[in-house]
Amino acid sequence: MLDRILEGAIRGTSSSGNMQAFSIIVTTDPALKQALYPLHFEQDMVLEAPAFVTFCADFHRMRRWLEASDAPDNFDNLMSFMIGAIDAILVAQSAALAAEQEGLGLCFLGTTLANCAAISEVLQLPANVVPVVGFSLGYAAEAPGPRDRLPTHGLVHRNVYQAPDVREIYEARQSRGWARYMQDDQLRAMVEASGVQNLAQLYTTVKYTRESHQAYSATILDCLERQNFLAG
Length: 232
Description:
Strand order of the largest sheet: 1-2-4-3
Distance between the termini: 41 Å
CATH superfamily of the largest domain: NADH Oxidase
Number of domains: 2
CATH topology of the largest domain: NADH Oxidase
Largest sheet: 4 strands, antiparallel
Number of helices: 11
Low-confidence stretches: none
Shape: globular
């Protein structure tokens, strides 16, 4: 089933210049999943799901082929990483949709990019390969309801960007998102301990602090330099 899912995602997903500048790492080995566990903030699904799938921006293949073909190599730069990252994200979403069609469950983890340097070491990624996004994959043990989303009119713009009424757009998100935290004992305890008063404060005081984003930014830039994406 997994082979079918990934084959369909690869064949059915658009790719910049058809370079397919991505690689997919399927991790099922318990020891490797244990090594990934702390890098994904000890989220239990990393260990509990039978597979963890990591999607990487990958110009290693392409650059080796160019070298063997005596062709110019123009892919040691930030633009190349962005091309590979977009390709990886597109094929990851295709794989996610295909997996759900097969009755599987999954959970995307943003920690893949946040800890890209350390994850690269665990997965033994060569130069010009950087992990961008990943998800745990298996049969779901529960069926939670759909998460709230911003209204379509706040996300879709006609012809040009139109400044939204942010209070109106986020009104429902504030009430529903806050209710979700209050209904879970563990999440409510975290909120009460932090002293925040609304969802916006929760996002930038607890979940996505300036300090954490600055640290992750430094990690990503360091990883890109080490993986030879900032040479040109």
